[in-house]
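Reopening this one. Same input as before:
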Amino acid sequence: MQPRRYLAVHFVVIMIIFDRSVEGSLEKCVESHKYNSKRQFTLTFLIGSKINSDFNIAHLSFTTVNELFEKEDKEWIETVIEHGYLLRRFLPGGIGNVGILWVCNENIGSERQRILLRLFDKIVKEARNDFITTDNIYCVVHLEAPNYKPQGYTLDAAVKNTDPSPVKVVFSNLEWIGVKSSISINFSLPVRDDVHNFRDQFKYIMSKWNDKEKRHRSSNFVEIQLFLSSDDDFEDFDHKDLIGYSIVDLKANLSIQAAVPSKATMEYAINAVKEHIIRNLSFRAELHYETMEVTDDSDAEDGISIHQFPRLVTAQFPSQSAILLSDCLMQEDTKKIAQDDFKQFFSLEFTEDEISDSYERPLSCKDFYGILEENDKPKRFDRPSSTTSSGVSISSVVPITNIFLDFGLPVVVFYGRDI
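Same output, byte for byte:
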């Protein structure tokens, strides 16, 4: 007699888990929707982490589109995407927008599903600007009149014409833990001729760094020290056709505090640290770029000017002290700007004393000179004088960029070099 054989089938039960502290915000969202009788829907971002297929929700981020729009048109979608993109600037590694909460007066029909998929597709593409591998699966919590009972779904933004998959929605006491680390980066990379401005240069170097770093994954470290050689890349240049060249030197010593769910693995924590590094540097570089006024300074004797990145200020989530929000302020900005940003994006009100500006120290002129080679010492040093102008000097050839951090404010040095 043949022995019986059994087939083991493992089922993965996906859940959307709200922290108990979110219950009040959820009720507030429903009441706000019911109060405005003309509003057909209310949209809210779900802030948290995805771990082991579950979505852990730490906070609700209300969007301004609820007051600005009455229908889901193209302009509405673009506004939602912009809000979600800016939202990531404030979040630590390990925390992100994992989905949306949708309060409406009717069932989610096929047209609304299509709109949601368009939203998710754009959100996924924007998230990849962090150069972090992003999951295509997002969650939706739908609260429908008249009882507004939470109904959970997941959607795959990578699959067209997909139907939402129902999942369970529960409330529990969740906990996030802080992941404190540091990283040292020191490498040079040539920039191709078609990369001319600071923003494109920075995105280029960060993507190259992340691509090379991913080839050397390890699960037994938290502190990372990375040295990359760019000698091979120089072989692609035809010096006979160049009047100048551009090299990006990235030097950084960063102190990091990411946040992960208490059940996170070491690999999860390491990826959160990587996400924090790339997101933090990229957004600060982007903000610096947005406030720069480019001027032609090709006749300058030394062709060098030094620029500080925006400084970080931080505040703790009231319900999860391990989650550290951060904002970037220009030189003359006050904590009032951070207060307004935290209120706008997170509906959180902080006093000035609750916002810390001691996370990084200001760099001195001595610090700036210390990062340059002796032959590259500038004959003058220009400190930015306003919140909207950095007075960038750019030489006649594509500039070389140096970025340096010493648990202090990042600085950017532009200078050109002839062949």
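So the earlier flakiness isn't reproducible anymore. For the record, Residues 213-244, 379-407, 412-419 have pLDDT under 50 and may be disordered.
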